[in-house]
């Protein structure tokens, strides 16, 4: 199968690909550096920043003290975990029934669910905003959790469906023949086999919810603002705030970066709705 | 196979999802269409009379509408060109044997996980700022006049930022597709004397055609809705230089409080997105049958 590749070719490949990797990763690396500098040092020339200045944690402390960073951080956590949990609650039964008890409508239902994802959010911005205003859900964690659950629901259902589809139906039939009830079938037969697929669905959904930046910005102001919205407060042009912006950004992207590394492969399946595996 | 009991149980289990999505889609959609025919501004208290096609007329004839459509097309087209072609090269590069594959792949893919507001602000301040940004510093030290990115080439700057986010997506999907290519086929072609270019053109590219289409369609759906990157960098300006359709609708509905006009814009955005969605749905549907 694999051909013998000379070490020289490998080194050359590594150099080119490594350069690409470094270029793509550099902005992230750079804010990681700036986050540990003082504001004065952070705006110096790049080489001076790297080699001619000390390191400090003060930006992290300032960001927290000035803007109650962890409130927004925990908003992000609550909203993304909450919407994922609620989404699973609705999606697992739906995906299960479509995968194991398919009917002649299953295909159409799946396609229709997907089509709701194609609706541009801005197309329904006005009514959602007004409904939220009237129900007093603007700037509330609960309202945002529901919206994020709904926009990601098609992806969760679709991903779970493709994973459930890969579980051989004979095993379920065998369990049924042995007298397993529907509940036992789901709990003791299906769930253990479905856990890897569910785990990656959960990961992808948390990533999508964490980074969602249309509804989180338009439906929150301060109280329920997650990190996506909080970071926009750094967009004012005046003032030197590189170190603080970096510190706030590092903490905002670190958890998702780590999760993303674990779910690269599943990401493809989830984001292409199974069209590329 | 499936018994009658399990059928009705299945129907019961799927109904919450169907009802929720139905409500989420139909209620706002109907309201958007309804509002788009009213003269309805949140700043004017009182009646909201029927306005016919008035909102559509004013929305479409506004000069910023033309600008927004043009900017949307340039933004989507520019990002698609950069990410698809760049992603193709990156995928081929990453598919070759090398040391530290895992680490290098992760570094290339990482930008996709950075939230839009962070990536936009980091690029805007740390790189594109003419005085303190890295690009500006490099230009100055080489004796050039630094570019004022958001003043001189605002739309191109946004295209760059968005491409940085989406290049990893294209790379990841094309790489996944490339890995399913039969290596023996490539080796056979090589033994028959096919050069690198003909192997790329006649074997790799046809194999990737489907994945490339998926990348283009899915990205288009997301790129039509670019919003946060514009909000935190240029606010749609200077003038309307970086206002896309999404941002224009945001301005008329949430900044000018013109519910009728914003809704008319929303309906237009939905129609545009649907044109792309139809093709995408067809491709995914075909895959479902296979």
Secondary structure blueprint with pairings:
The complex is a heterodimer of chains A (277) and B (290).
Chain A: H1 7-34, H2 39-42, H3 46-51, H4 58-67, H5 69-100, H6 106-117, H7 125-134, H8 141-165, H9 169-177, H10 182-211, H11 215-219, H12 227-231, H13 242-262, H14 264-271
Chain B: H1 4-35, H2 54-61, H3 63-94, H4 101-109, H5 116-127, H6 134-141, H7 149-152, H8 154-179, H9 183-191, H10 196-223, H11 228-233, H12 245-255, H13 259-289
Report on the structure:
The complex is a heterodimer of chains A (277) and B (290). With 277 residues, chain A is mainly α. Chain A has 2 domains: 7-59, no CATH class; 68-271, Orthogonal Bundle (MetI-like fold), CATH 1.10.3720.10. Helices cover 74% and strands 0% of the residues of chain A. The radius of gyration of chain A is 23 Å and the shape is globular. Chain B has one domain: MetI-like fold. The longest helix of chain B is centred in the first third of the chain and has 32 residues, at 4-35. The two termini of chain B are 22 Å apart. At the A-B interface, helix 1, helix 5, helix 6, helix 7 and helix 8 of A face helix 1, helix 3, helix 4, helix 5 and helix 6 of B.
How much helix, percentage-wise, in residues of chain B? Answer: over 70%
Uncertain ranges of chain A: none
Proportion in β-strands of chain A: under 5%
How many H/I helices of chain A? 14
Using the alpha-carbon principal axes, give the shape of chain B: flat
